[in-house]
């Protein structure tokens, strides 16, 4: 699927405007939030490692073709 150059411009601008317009928020952060954030980070790192492992042959083939052109 191909997107035009400006396809993400509007959602990004809306997100930035929402973040800028937020006023003070008095919210309670649960003690389990820290462990949840750690779980999210670990899951992201493991997913990235799995993706790298899955596509490692394609990556090395691409780099060898790229470097052998010289």
Tell me what the structure shows.
It is a single chain. The protein is mainly alpha-helical and 70 residues long. It has a domain at 31-70. The protein has 3 helices and no strands. It has helices at residues 9-21, 33-54, 56-68. The mean pLDDT is 86.
**Order of SSEs, N→C?**
HHH
Secondary structure: number of strands: 0
- Put simply, the count of helices is 3
Distance between the termini: 32 Å
Report the helical percentage.
55-70%
Write the layout of secondary structure elements.
Elements: H1 9-21, H2 33-54, H3 56-68
Keywords:
70 residues, single chain, mainly alpha, 69% helix
Brief write-up:
The chain is mainly alpha-helical.
């Amino acid at each position: 699927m191909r997107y035009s150059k400006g396809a993400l411009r509007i959602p990004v601008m809306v997100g930035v405007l929402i973040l800028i317009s937020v006023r003070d928020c008095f919210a309670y952060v649960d003690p389990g939030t820290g462990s949840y954030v750690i779980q999210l980070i670990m899951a992201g790192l493991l997913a990235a490692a799995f993706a790298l492992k899955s596509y490692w042959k394609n990556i090395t083939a691409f780099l060898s073709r790229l470097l052998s052109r010289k």
